[in-house]
Amino acid sequence: MISIIMSTYNSADTLSKAIDSILSQTFKNFEFLIMDDGSTDNTQQILENYLKIDNRVKIFKNRQNIGLTKSLNLLAERSNYEILARQDSDDISHNQRLEKQYSLLMSTDFSICTTRAKSMQTLKKIPRFTFYFPKKMLLKYKNPFVHGTLMISKKTFMEIGGYNVDYEYAQDYKLMLDLYRAGSKVKILKQVLYYLNTENNISTLKATEQRYYFKKAQTKSN
What we know:
By secondary structure, this protein is α/β, with parallel strands linked by helices. The chain has a single domain (2-221), classed as Spore Coat Polysaccharide Biosynthesis Protein SpsA, Chain A. It contains nine helices and nine strands. Helix 2 links the parallel strand 2 (30-37) and strand 3 (57-62). Helix 7 (171-181) packs parallel to helix 9 (207-221). The radius of gyration is 16 Å and the shape is globular. It starts with a strand and ends with a helix.
């Protein structure tokens, strides 16, 4: 069984496609925990409609916006299963994503895996050429992992304390640095199993904040 965690904030325009991509997975044994992080659009109404459609969907709501880092930690704490998976509310998962990632974790000694993605806007693969480079080396300069594709043992996640709450942004980069420092390794599946929104997302709208926390994580890791 897998616990999929997703936090959403004012994502009404993209939310349904993201949720549908999970509910249509070939892997069926999961719970889908979704946090409405203080949205002011009709996000809550959309989520309530899904409660009527699929009993695997579980909805939570923050009274005010507390940010992605804290929201994901709250969802992880409320999850019931031993494998956690991520999904972002403006992205889409390939319908075999969960099946292929779960199969890898069950058949190898990896406790963490991600997949390659493709930009919805440019159609370029992410990561592209750097997919073939050593990940530990790349982590010194960039995050080679697509956060929305993360699948991880809940035990591994909890042992390092989850997402570091001091990082409002670049929390995924900090998480990966912490995992590698703890001796974990991450497998990236070569196949594209995720479709990434690369316009008007956190990385573009909060680029300055992302760079600040990215540099902070880099400095702390040296």
